[in-house]
Here is the input.
Amino acid sequence: MEKVSRRNFLKKSSGIAVAAVALGRSTGAMASEPHIEFPTEPRARLSVASYPFRDFISSPHWKAAGKAPPAMDIKGFGAMVVEKFNVKNIEPWSAHFASTDAAYVAELRATFDKAGAHVINIPGDIKHSVYDPDAANRSEAVKEGKTWIDAATVLGSPSVRIHIGRVKNAKPDVDLAAGSLGQIADYGATKNVVVNLENDDLVSEDAFFVVKVIEKANNPYLHALPDFANSMMSQSAVFNYRAVTAMFKHAYNISHVKEGEDGEGGKFIAVDVEKTFGIAKAAGYRGYYSMEMDRKGDPYEGTQKLIDMSLKYLA
Here is the structure.
């Protein structure tokens, strides 16, 4: 099946703030800093991302491509994770949302609650770039980012991950990105939702660029989302572990666990999972670890393997 890139996804907003108020979530004054009571029991710190199951979960992309949708809807993802993996935390990818309409997101929350599943982060993809030289485009990026904060508020998620997209003929700009993301983080602060940045795209989301943006913005609601393997796509282990170390120094509540990724030509590029957990521990990281298998193979088996490895190194 065709792999849908998270980097090309867009969903437009519609009335989420109304649902947030209806559900009693705060939309008031900005808090000075986020506060999350993290669990300490190893399994309770684990989460499962929906991204690895993209070939099994229906999404707007399937309809757009004229394909018959897979059997699973994202509404059933929480129940599947709880039943199959005995994990209650989930990370639903924005591409799997059929809509950001208030009623739809509230219904999604209800199905997760019924299954005993809790959203701990939404990887939110946005079309416009936060460092686009065009101020109007940056403004659109901020609006899109706020949409996912509103969705997180309805879903009871403590955070979102905002994608930093590339801009044609423009290099990543720390000042512009920090300005845009600072606005999104300020909005998140009014709802106690943290904004996370992931080391993903080696150009627009290079780990050291991300760290510079976070330090420039200097916003308590803007943090790093360290991915165990994305920086290894540089094919330099030294660079990867330096990158992950830098990211964990700014991490707060979410990290992606991988044992590696498929590189060019399908070659698997492995990471030292035990070493990476050690980096997280040394940084004093207390947040969640979300399983995000991103290689060829059965995502059910791959996710279980990551869970088993994580429990071993968190014991």
